[in-house]
């Protein structure tokens, strides 16, 4: 789990993305949708996912228990096949002050 100050990886409209494959994340970085510090976090998460074979979750630091449960944040997978199977229903992320 990588904790951050936003609800997870955000799409072009500012909504959290529930699940991403590393290849999809790289396309969003190249398109400028994921930028700055989040691009660095996503690339690091992709390397960890690829080397460990595990899912890496990028989630808000304010809700670590929910992040551990997989209820919030973005699940980053090494491959697209694994990303498709992660369709947990989202609960609203608490507002961060």
Architecture overview:
Mean pLDDT is 86; it is low at 86-97. The chain has helices at 22-30, 36-52, 64-69, 80-84, and strands at residues 2-4, 19-21, 56-60, 74-77. The protein has a four-stranded mixed β-sheet with strand order 1-3-4-2. It is of the alpha/beta class. 38% of the residues lie in helices and 15% in strands. The two termini are 21 Å apart.
Question: How would you describe this structure in keywords?
Answer:
97 residues; alpha/beta
- Protein structure class: alpha/beta
Task: Tell how many strands the DSSP assignment holds.
Answer: 4
Order of helices and strands: EEHHEHEH
Number of helices: 4
Overall mean confidence score, pLDDT? 86
Can you give the helix content as a percent range? Answer: 25-40%
Strand content: 15-25%
Q: What radius of gyration results from the CA coordinates?
A: 12 Å
Strand order of the largest sheet: 1-3-4-2
Q: What overall form do the CA principal axes indicate? A: globular
In short:
This protein has 4 helices and 4 strands. With 97 residues, it is of the alpha/beta class.
Strand and helix layout:
Layout: E1 2-4, E2 19-21, H1 22-30, H2 36-52, E3 56-60, H3 64-69, E4 74-77, H4 80-84
Parallel strand pairs: 1-3, 2-4
Antiparallel strand pairs: 3-4
Helix pairs in contact: 1-2
């Amino acid at each position: 789990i990588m904790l951050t100050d936003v609800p997870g990886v955000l799409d072009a409209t500012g909504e959290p993305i529930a699940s991403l494959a590393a290849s999809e994340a790289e396309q969003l970085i190249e398109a400028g949708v994921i930028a700055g510090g989040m691009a660095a976090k996503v690339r690091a998460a992709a390397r960890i996912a690829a080397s460990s074979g595990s899912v890496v979750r990028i989630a808000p630091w304010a809700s670590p228990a929910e992040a551990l449960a997989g209820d919030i944040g973005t699940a980053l997978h090494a491959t697209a096949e694994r990303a498709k199977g992660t369709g947990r229903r989202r609960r609203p992320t608490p507002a961060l002050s």
